[in-house]
Amino acid sequence: MTALAERPGDTRTRGRVVAQRFFVVRELGIGLALLLLIVITALVNPRFLAAQSIKDLLLGSTILAILATGQAIVVITRNVDLSVGSVLGLSAFAVGTLFVSAPGTPIPVALAMGVALGAACGAVNGLLIAAARVPALVVTLGTLYVFRGIDYTWATGKQVNAADMPAGFLRMGTKAVLGVPVLALFAVVVLVFAGYYLRAFRSGRELYAIGSEPAAARLNGIPVGRRIFGAFVVSGALAGFAGVLYAARFGTLDANAGINSELNVVAAVVVGGVAIFGGSGSVYGAALGAVLLTTIGAALPVLGVSPFWQRAAVGALILAAIGLDRILMARVGERLRVIGGRSVAENAPNQRKGARRA
Amino acid sequence: MSPPEPTPPLLSLHGVDKSFGAVQALRDARLDLYAGEAHGLVGENGAGKSTLVRVLSGAHRPDTGQLTMDGQPLVLHGPADARAAGIAVIYQEPTLFPDLSVAENIFMGRQPLRSYRRIDKAAMRTRTAELFARLGVHLDPDRPARGLSIADQQLVEIAKALSFDARVLVMDEPTAALSGVEVERLFGVARSLRDAGAAVLFISHRFDEVFALCQRITVMRDGRWVSTDRAGDLTVDALVRRMVGREISALFPRVDHDPGEPVLDVRGLTLGGVFEDVSFTVRAGEIVALAGLVGAGRSEVARAVFGVDGYDSGAVTVAGKALRPGRPDLAIAAGLALVPEDRRQQGLVMDLSVERNVTLVRRWALSRFGLLASRAERRSARTWADRLQVKAGALTDDVSTLSGGNQQKVVLAKWLSTDPTVLIVDEPTRGIDVATKAEVHRLLSEQAARGVAVLMVSSELPEVLGMADRVLVMHEGRLVADIPRHGADEESVMFAATGSAGDKT
User: Fold this and answer.
1) Does residue B190 share a domain with residue B174?
2) How far apart are CA B93 and CA B200, in angstroms?
């Protein structure tokens, strides 16, 4: 600390280093936890790493990762979308029904329809939240039941079977390119697009600004309502997209597709280091969180842990992730205050004091 | 009253009304800002200054009246429009995004772009570094805004205003939390902008600053325009009279009397890196001011004495009994009261009603069988609100609806109702208007006369000199001077506070 105060010239680069290290540490931490889990499980049971198993892991993570990507975009704006599971179910059943009633439908059309349906659901959420200014938690809790209710009404007594769907569509759900499942490739494309958009475009950065300090965002002239609306439409569209992939992967559809998955998605996002109060985190972290949660689900039975304990393990992981965030945040905050608490050279001796002031 | 002006105003606002529900915040407000001129705007809290700023910034749309810029009517649909018109606003409380980098904070919504409308981060960083170089500050463009001192946050706001070559710069009480050096630097920037042809609107409760910076001063009262004059034609007395519409009997109603027994005794209080070996006594009936520059560790000492923060070594005794560190509950039981620096964050629960706030500390004393009897609560709150003349629509209104001065009275009422023997007040009159200031001073004086030991942390020299029986001065975490009332003047306190002549006293 003292050394820093004596060399104020260093502060220019130190701030960047500290900040960057912090964000790397967050995602690196999840990566490390994932690696550790895989290594331990593989040591206990080497067959865990067999090709089929890795493919299963990727396949299993895909849908959760896509949902988590959309959720992360919403959470970054200090909102939450609890309706994603229901949107997924609605979209999956809609795609199944489309293939039943119009067997020749091309796959891209089915994909577009699922995405559009999801986007429409997201628009309903977004309108209620942005225009009517109802808190997102309440609105999406409501639409969670409304969308699922529509799904039930529509799907009562009906079931779509794999036989009703075109073979090409089902192949998309199981096929792999160079050992990587096609579905996982879809997820990677979505992820890279979303990650790049959030980093490199004005509207993407504005989402972070809104989550970081909503009042300041308004005063800065950011169209807060429009951006939040957009975030919910994207989250809905991705949930719709995930619904189509769900249909392709499982083939058999009833009204329960994706039920109770919403909290799993939020868990993945939080474990992935996206702050639940918005403003920080990345979709990559959220996707890693999704992979980690899926891997836990697969690894714990291999390790001989009773399935009853699996949920507790997920819970402990969430608490650990939040605890880690808190500790990192406090330490980074402290160091930033030391580095740049005072910018004037005359005040340099005060730097240490600035560090302790809340 | 307005002097004739050969050149037309750059930005002018006429006949503006604005009401929020039943409350009329602005009535026929007017303001003319000229290029190359700094314009002071003064008025009590609740006079409508901040509403006027929000009209100029596009955050509020006026009910009637109009804005003109360069003689053309200007309609602002939101803050983005104001910025497009070249109006930059620096609010009282900085409006930064703590999670984003300083560079992003400056360019949010206007980031330099490269192909395909992507943000050009390198250009953004370079331009931020250029802006900081112009301002002469050493801030890392890539560090997050989280953890910046208030002064540095203001600098980021100013860099923001510079970044889009603002033609009109509005500063709403930017100096409230700044120390002398920081204020000087802020003024340096404001002057250079003004000399470059921008119009500056400066709002402050500190008259010396208004006179130092501004060529023209407008006074507002109760949402109305009162007068606009050249600064040279005005005196502080005249300004104060116009602001309150009446004479202020005495801003510092201090009565002389003999202090009693020592009540609060602090010995060798040390917290590593924050303050060191701080020792002092406060006697019954005595007002002791703790002066010094912002960051000298005064508030930290006050917080440690009250037990909000712990300390490494030292002892605090109240009326002969030692206080355990880090236990505000025991401190309250021992008769201590702390009116904190930041009333919104620390002094009040903004979402609770006035009466709930007033009775918050005494909720157990007022309850019977563990239940709060609302009648007892109401009666107690009514008594104290009347005694302090809190102006509120109803005591059941949220405390957030009150003006700053009245909020401060609620905080005072809350603590005075505990009947303290030691009253610690941290910046008791920050950001409140002259009339309320005088009332707060009268209250403190009354408490001292009743035998309460008062410890007052204050950055305002006139307040320190006008109120205190003794002035303790801190510099970089150490107590460097203990000056009795008759020996204290601006010079001796400032010398000690800046550490330039610690041995002079």
Assistant:
1) yes
2) 18
- Residue B98 and residue A219: Cβ atoms within 8 Å? no
A202 to B139: CB separation less than 8 angstroms, yes or no: no
- Given B244, B271, B294, the domain boundary residue is B244
Sign, Cα dihedral of A279, A284, A287, A292: negative
Q: What is the ipTM of this complex?
A: 0.83
DSSP string, A234-303: HHHHHHHHHHHHHHHHH--B-TTTTTT-HHHHHHHHHHTT--TTSS---HHHHHHHHHHHHHHHHHHHHT
Are B143 and A15 a contacting pair at CB < 8 A? yes
Residue-range definition of the domain harbouring residue B456 = 259-335+421-433+448-505
The minimal CB distance from B137 to the residues A202, A212, A343 is found for A343
In a domain, B291, yes or no: yes
Ranges of each domain in chain A: 2-356
Return the number of other C-beta atoms located less than 10 Å from residue A204's C-beta: 19
Q: What residues are paired with B317 via a beta bridge?
A: B265, B322
Look at B95 and A344 and tell me if their CB atoms are within 8 Å: no
What letter does residue B343 receive in the DSSP assignment?
I
Q: Does B100 contact A208 at a Cβ distance shorter than 8 Å?
A: yes
List the single residue in B with minimal CA-CA distance to A346: B181
| Most A-contacting residue of B99, B178, B308 (CB-CB within 10 A), to test interface | B99
How many domains, chain B? 3
Do B81 and B171 share a domain, yes or no? Answer: yes
Q: Does B310 touch chain A (CB under 8 A)?
A: no
Q: CB-based contact (8 Å) between B137 and chain A?
A: yes
Mark whether B235 and B310 lie in a shared domain: no
Whether residue B353 is found in the same domain as residue B331: no
Q: Which of residues 140-199 of B touch A (CB under 8 A)?
A: 140, 142-144, 146-149, 151-152, 155, 181-182, 185
Q: Is B426's Cβ below 8 Å from some Cβ in A?
A: no
Distance CA B444, CA B288 (A): 11
- pLDDT by 10s per residue, chain B, length 505: 444 555 788 999 999 998 876 567 888 899 999 999 999 998 876 678 888 998 999 988 999 998 999 989 999 998 889 988 999 998 877 789 999 999 999 999 889 999 999 999 999 999 999 999 888 788 889 988 888 877 788 889 888 888 887 899 999 888 766 777 778 888 888 898 899 899 999 998 778 889 999 999 999 987 889 999 999 998 887 887 787 765 444 567 666 667 788 999 999 999 887 899 999 999 999 999 998 877 788 989 999 999 988 899 999 999 889 999 889 999 999 999 999 888 878 888 888 888 888 888 877 777 777 776 678 788 888 888 888 888 777 888 888 878 777 888 899 999 988 889 999 999 888 777 777 888 888 889 989 988 999 999 988 777 888 889 999 999 888 999 999 988 888 778 877 877 764 443 3
| Joined tokens for residue A149 | 């209710």
Report phi then psi at A257, rounded to 5: -60, 130
Interface of B with A in 446-505 (CB under 8 A): 476-477
Q: Is the pTM of this model over 0.80?
A: no
A2-356: CATH topology: ABC transporter involved in vitamin B12 uptake, BtuC (1.10.3470)
Smallest Cα distance from B138 to chain A, Å: 5
